[in-house]
Specification:
The protein is mainly alpha-helical. The chain has nine helices and two strands. Helices cover 60% and strands 9% of the residues. A two-stranded antiparallel sheet has the order 1-2.
Length: 205
């Protein structure tokens, strides 16, 4: 390898697609979408895909196989995976499968600061999230028809996303119901008391 490259979801996906056959970037993007992998990696902007391919190329994980020339299309560079790329892809895959990674998505962060709002202010926001999550869940359910036409192993990530969305929706609806019923409530005074109690426990306070 001529340059180190860190593992990434998109990097692993590009290497995975190239293990099927040599492809140009448009072919990689199209295959990602055909197989539903765009549910787990962002390929909406092709610039990110090109940057990832450039990093893999610099690291010696892929090489240029040929440049396709056609009067109807611009020149397209076709890439293929190297032996080093296969080794790296295997290492990244094993690590991602076996070792849970601590991630920091937006929603749990927002929940950790929900005390900044009143329960009355928080409720409509969570109801809005519930509506959008419900719509996404219905879309995932509808996608099962497409999934049935492919081997289960190809769609495991869709299965996982659906299960996760189902659990999120169930939890969110329970929280909303507790807010509506008054079983979950807080006040600005409680927030102030909590902050003062925490400050009192700090050394030197």
């Amino acid at each position: 390898m001529t340059a180190p490259v860190r593992s990434s979801p998109l990097g692993l996906t590009v290497l995975g697609m190239l293990q099927t056959r040599p492809l140009h970037p448009y072919g990689i993007q199209r295959l990602i979408k055909q197989w539903g992998k765009d549910q787990v990696v962002n390929v909406g902007q092709r610039a990110g895909l090109y940057r990832t391919i450039e990093r893999l190329l610099a690291a010696g994980l892929v090489v240029v196989r040929e440049t396709e020339r056609d009067q109807l299309y611009p020149e397209r560079t076709v890439y293929e995976i190297t032996d080093a790329g296969r080794v790296a892809a295997r290492e990244w895959l094993e690590e991602m499968l076996a070792v849970p990674k601590q991630e920091f998505p937006d929603f749990p962060v927002a929940l950790s600061h929900i005390l900044m709002l009143t329960p009355q202010e928080a409720l409509p926001l969570l109801e809005r999230r519930e509506a959008e999550l419900s719509e996404m869940h219905q879309s995932l359910e509808a996608g099962r028809t497409f999934a049935d036409s492919l081997p289960r192993v190809v769609m495991l990530e869709s299965e996982y996303i659906l299960a996760t969305a189902t659990a999120q929706l169930s939890w969110l609806r329970a929280v909303i119901e507790d807010l509506r019923a008054g079983r979950l409530s807080w006040s600005e005074g409680e927030l102030r008391e909590l902050a003062e109690a925490s400050a009192a426990e700090m050394p030197g306070q």
